[in-house]
Amino acid sequence: MDGFNNTIDPSCLQEPPLAIDIIKQLDVFGIILYSVLTLMAALSLLVYLEECVYIYRKVPSPKKTTIIWVNGAAPAIATMSCLGLWIPKAIMFTDMTSATYFAIVVYKFLILMLEECGGDEEFLRRFGKNRFRISTGPCCCCCPCLPHVPVTRRTLFILKLGSLQFALLKTIFTIISIVLWTNGNFDLSDLEITGTAIWINPFVGVLTIIALWPVAIMFMNVRLTLRSQKIIPKYAMYQLVLVLSQLQTAIINILALNGDIACAPPFSSQIRGNLMSQQLLILEMFIITLVTRLLYRRQYDLLPAADMHEDDNDENTKIVLQCENGDNLA
After folding, report:
1. Which tens digit of pLDDT belongs to each residue from 7-44?
2. Which of 4, 66, 104, 256 has fewest C-beta within 10 Å?
3. How many domains does the chain have?
4. Domain of 183, in residue numbers
5. Can you tell me the distance from the alpha carbon of 147 to that of 87, in angstroms, rounded to the nearest whole number?
């Protein structure tokens, strides 16, 4: 074991460096890279703030609050990633902050689709006589045999609760993780069965899947109605933020823990993987911020009111067709 340790650069086994140590060891390329990424994160935040002012003035309540929450996902992640880029010791906290904010966005996006339909009452009036297909991802996309459920207040409450639980429990588990970390009981690199991270993180993953399911159910059943509100590209951006901030980061962290990412003193393999993840997220969230600005910064026209006599018209059409078929047979 001693011989093995002698082949590893001691710098690769050190704790994350301080911000001042990073600044001192930056070369010309590093200075340019850090400057450009910091500028991107700052621009993301400025674009978001300008958009918030526009939405606050032009969009009626309560939709404007929901839109501001949903739009803040990419800028918030970019800002936290920039802080983690300059202060590697804080990466765990910046990642947890980003994940907690996105947990709230999952619930807010569900509310956004309801408000785009005109609110709960208008939604029930439009879809009250329909049945929702629930065989969709990420839970039951392979279960087409699941029955379609009627659209009622109870169904709507369950869908909201399914997403709201993630926003609440994710915040609670983040606080618990920070408290355990201060006591030396929480370490993301500790994959032993006795570690707390190996129990908390999979449980949070299950909560995430449960929360994403109601949003997917709602989108699959209202996407045609809300096509004029550009709900499909909005949902695509929401899914892209999810994949990049959660799945991409998890893959890079797993590779770093396995030692597949080379150590580069003063950064260990794990810290270097974290920094690579922060750099990618800043660039990706900057682009997503610009795209979401095009989608959300616009005038919002109300949907055409649901035709209360639409069902009667359908029934009358069926009766006329049946009568014509009867005359033809006669």
Report:
1. 555 556 667 778 788 888 888 998 999 999 999 999 99
2. 4
3. 1
4. 2-329
5. 51
